[in-house]
Design brief:
The protein starts with 11 loop residues before the first helix and ends with a strand. It has one domain. The longest helix has 22 residues. The chain has a six-stranded mixed β-sheet. Strands 4, 5, 7, 10 and 13 form a five-stranded antiparallel β-sheet that branches. The chain has a three-stranded mixed β-sheet with strand order 9-8-17. The chain has 287 residues and is mainly beta.
């Protein structure tokens, strides 16, 4: 049962404070990359024609850097299941820097262009993805994806529903079955497995609200935690989108006892189904 609550707008001070804290990993990540790695003189630059041109001169044209930072972690129970089932094998060092595969689309609008250009980002640890979902020769940055676009940029935005997280485990839906006697009296209940969903990308969804604006369905992202669009960034600025949260899947239990050691859920439990994939929050900023 979801208890309704009214959504209140966060104060400006708390938003600024929270944003500064959450963007620290982003700034650190960019510093680790080094200035030269973000120098448009050495990178493919997206311009208003939609083409990727290489600026090879020291006096490269004005640019805006767009970066997506994957700060998502993996739930301990899910990771334990993946390890004990033999799906992954990780060192302690790898566990510390483990990020699930996240695929997102960033839209860029140039004032002098008639269309919106899309940049597909993908980040995360390739050990958490089934072979065949990602091209064998495709390099995936573990945490930070960066793209450089030429000025002038009118608007940069990222949509929650165009962001996907890869769920690296099979999910089994179970059905609660009642047994009755000849008189129609229920004599017992038991769960039986029904459908299986293979590992796959799962699209993130915003929480559902009723007509009064109260929380109705808990999904993956609070409506207050979706990213804001960045408009008219000046040349030389960095537009950052940061995703935080935890990749999580359900494990069906009955009366406190696990029905299955593998990821599973009651096929009639709409609340659990809606929240599969975990909880997340986005931040967007311009520096």
């Amino acid at each position: 049962m979801i208890h309704k609550r009214h959504l209140t707008r966060r104060s400006g001070a708390s938003l600024v404070s929270a944003l500064l804290v959450r963007l620290m990993p982003c700034c650190v990540a960019l510093n680790l990359l080094g200035c030269d790695s973000l120098n448009p003189a050495f990178l493919s630059v997206l311009d208003s024609s939609g083409g990727g041109t290489f600026a090879t001169l020291d006096n490269a044209p004005g640019h805006v850097i767009i970066t997506f930072v994957n700060n998502v972690t993996v739930d301990e129970r899910l990771l334990s299941y993946l390890e004990t089932s033999g799906a992954v094998s990780l060192t302690d060092e790898e566990k510390q820097s483990l990020h699930p595969i996240v695929r997102a689309t960033v839209r860029v609008n140039f004032p002098n262009a008639q269309q919106v250009f899309e940049i597909e980002t993908i980040t995360g640890n390739t050990k958490l993805v089934e072979q065949g979902f990602i091209a064998a020769d495709e390099w995936i940055p573990p945490q930070v994806f960066t793209r450089v676009v030429a000025c002038d940029v009118g608007r940069v935005e990222l949509a929650v529903t165009e962001t996907e997280v890869f769920v690296p485990a099979e999910l089994t839906a179970w059905e609660l079955i009642q047994t009755t006697n000849d008189a129609g009296t229920v004599t017992g209940t038991t769960f039986e497995p029904r459908t299986r969903t293979p590992p796959q990308f799962r699209q993130l969804q915003l929480d559902g609200l009723d007509e009064s604006g109260d929380l109705d369905t808990l999904r993956n992202v609070d409506i207050r935690d979706q990213p804001s669009a960045v408009t008219n960034p000046v040349c030389g600025s960095v537009v950052a989108f940061v995703l935080e949260g935890t990749l999580r899947v359900p494990f069906l239990e009955r009366n406190g006892v696990s029905v299955s050691d593998a990821p599973s859920f009651d096929q009639d439990d709409e609340d659990t189904i809606a929240s599969i994939g975990g909880r997340y929050r986005f931040n967007s900023s311009i520096n």
